[in-house]
Specification:
The chain has 5 helices and 3 strands. It is mainly α and 151 residues long. The chain has one domain. A 3-stranded parallel sheet has the order 1-2-3. The longest helix is centred in the C-terminal third of the chain and has 22 residues. The radius of gyration is 17 Å and the shape is globular. The C terminus is likely disordered.
Length: 151
C-alpha cells in the first residue's frame, strides 16, 4: 500500500473531495489476457459516487458517459431514468457531451478549448512518458505491472 493507505480509501476520499465526477463506461470490456474477465473499476467507482451523492446531494454532481445508449441500459439497468451522455466513441462526441454536462457551470469550456488541451496532451505525452520511464500515462515506472495506478 503506497503511503500506507488502502486504495479504496483514497478513491472514496477523492470522490468526496470533488464537486464533479465523470464516469465513462464505454471501456468496460473483456481483457484479452488470461483470465479473460471484464474490469469493473469504473462501474464500481460510479456506484460509490452515486452513494456519496445521495448522502450529500448538494456536494457532488456526477455524469455517466457511454459510447452506446443501449449498452448502458443492458449492463446497468439500475440507472434507468438517468441521462447518459452518449459520445459515440469519438473525441468530438466526448467533447460535445462534456459541454452538455457542464452547461450549468459558470464558465464551461468550449469544444475548441477541449480540443486544444487534448492535442497538447497528445503531442507532449510521449516525451513526458519517456522522462518518467513508463510506456503508459496511467502507470508510474516504479509500479509497472503491479496493478496500481498513479495518483
Amino acid at each position: 500500500m503506497p503511503g500506507g493507505e488502502r486504495r479504496l480509501n483514497r478513491i472514496v476520499a477523492l470522490i468526496r473531495s470533488c464537486r464533479y465526477s465523470f464516469h465513462d463506461l464505454s471501456r468496460v470490456e473483456l481483457d484479452l489476457r488470461r483470465p479473460r474477465a471484464p474490469r469493473f473499476n469504473m462501474p464500481f467507482e460510479l456506484g460509490l459516487t452515486v452513494m456519496a451523492a445521495m448522502e450529500h446531494p448538494a456536494r457532488h454532481t456526477w455524469c455517466v458517459f457511454e459510447s452506446n445508449q443501449r449498452r448502458v441500459q443492458k449492463s446497468l439497468s439500475d440507472l434507468s431514468g438517468t441521462d447518459v451522455c452518449v459520445h459515440d466513441g469519438t473525441s468530438e462526441g466526448l467533447f460535445r457531451q462534456l459541454c452538455n454536462a457542464l452547461v450549468r457551470v459558470k464558465r464551461p469550456p468550449t469544444v475548441k478549448q477541449m480540443k486544444t488541451v487534448y492535442q497538447t496532451l497528445e503531442e507532449s505525452c510521449p516525451a513526458v512518458m519517456a522522462k518518467a520511464g513508463t510506456r503508459s500515462p496511467f502507470w508510474s515506472a516504479g509500479l509497472r505491472g503491479s496493478g496500481r495506478l498513479r495518483q
